[in-house]
Amino acid sequence: MVCKIVDKKQRNLTKIKDKKQKDTGNCVFYNNRRKGTMIPNRRFNMDKSKQERINVVDELLSRGGLVLTDPLMPATLKNKEFAHGACTGYTFRLNNLSYRGVWISTIESIELIVDEEPVPQCDISLKLGSFSCAVCELENNSDVFWGVTDECRINVNKVGGLSKGDHTVELHIAKRNDFGHSYGEGTDIEGYMRDATELQRSTVVKDKMVYTV
Amino acid sequence: MNKLKHSVTLYGFGNRYVRGLCTFDEIMQKARGMGGDGIELVSPQMVPGHPNPSDSWIEYFKESCAVNDLDPVCFSIYIDNGKHRGRYLHEAERMTDTIAGMEYGKRMGFKIIRSQDPLLPSTMEKLLPYAEELDVHLAIELHGPYTPSTPIFAEYAELFERKGSDHLGVVMDFSAFASGAPSNCLAIFPDGICNKSLLYEINKLYATTEIPEEKLIQMIYDKGGDDVDVYVAKRRIFSIDAKTARMGTPFWRTHPDYDGFRSLLKHSRYMHGKFYHVDEDLLCPDIDYAGFVRIMKEEGYSGYIASEYEGDRYDNTVDDEEQIRRHIRMLDKLWEEK
Lengths: 213, 338
Fold this sequence. Notes:
The structure holds 2 protein chains of 2 kinds.
Chain A: H1 8-12, E1 19-20, E2 23-24, E3 27-32, E4 37-40, H2 50-61, E5 78-81, E6 87-94, E7 102-103, E8 107-114, E9 117-118, E10 124-128, E11 131-134, E12 145-146, E13 152-157, E14 166-175, H3 189-195, H4 197-200, E15 203-212
Chain B: E1 5-9, H1 14-18, H2 24-32, E2 38-42, H3 43-46, H4 55-67, E3 71-76, H5 91-108, E4 112-116, H6 121-134, E5 137-142, H7 151-163, E6 168-173, H8 196-208, H9 213-222, H10 227-237, H11 242-245, H12 258-264, E7 270-275, H13 289-298, E8 304-309, H14 320-336
Helix pairs in contact in B: 5-6, 8-9, 8-10
């Protein structure tokens, strides 16, 4: 199910044509770029079953409050090309995941699937300003803060890069909360395991987009 | 009677700022026109280089405040207990982060530093000498689902009473005193998913009466609703269930904690006037502002109240700037009523 990005200004800024996809049962969503949230298309099927309606409710409520749910930034994928046609891979930008910025160490995993093929973890790194790190090592960097306006990129090693044409990029990010209202001392591991469910449970944010190289 | 002092929290513009739809300069200019006496800044959200802003940014911020005639009032910092997988922060980490926040806030001109309850009362007590030396008011936010009677806030209240210091206190957020779910809590659902008009009617009854949930559910069926409407009501309207209340959003119906609010007022220099919607008649149906402002007047409250709009969580088609202006007008109207 493919929906068009509604922000014409954004679309006209680039020749790259991205298509945002969100498929939640039979309900179609489009990306409201002005406010930056996925909002429902009101032209949905009026004959939904009860289960289909409940699925829509669950989907909408699962997005949480101000947590942003569309990490893939449109029109940012490009091959990393050097002189004489050398190309070491490709890169794209991420939207921030929070209303207030996040600690990099709260990102528990980043999985990337390009054209339905999982990308090996060892080939994926995250770049934030001068900081760069393999995605599997992020949780060890507890003093790196990703501010809401900081440019953050995913770099993928792939000699030759992506071929010209459309490529479907799917991203799954598992992240736990930066803060919460459970409390205790760092030494109280037992108390943490018992009470801090809000900090132990990571949320998986999924996004999918077709980029054109 | 003194005038009620208003603050505009820049957090209210955060959604647009994060999306790159407005700059910090534009936010400061907007805040200037809102009718506030001062501003609150959420450090990780809008301070470049957080948690260690540069000297040049601090100078830029102070100049911006001067140019826009805005008084820096409250600097908000966090206790980020999620940083390390498998454990809370150690006390040394909480202290280090909080002292840094107090020092940066002070350098930016802020007088109140808002932290969070996981700082812990025993640690806050150890930070009192630093707050005294910097001459700032270190305050803990009391945010829903917690209330003044939640055990950890009883511990904080004991600390405030025992120390009797103007450098320690609480920032009460009105989310802790909500009667019912936000009056726009169903805006997220497309037409045809649930019977919105019926559920809004149920929401109003939930917030203003003590009719048991079972009877409200029966009412949904009696008025033509179905299982999906009941499902939505349980997830979106009735969330006082004890199992979820600890980390959910409990609504207190006709008995929000007025007494607890009153007892903590003497330790409060700033509060978060959380709201989700103010209508054209300057009424806020989800939170009994009239009742709480009456208590503030009776107790001679002389601090600030920030207009903290969060209705965009539920309905992002509403004009948020107009909502903040209405909230300020509503508070002034209630403050001036005899």
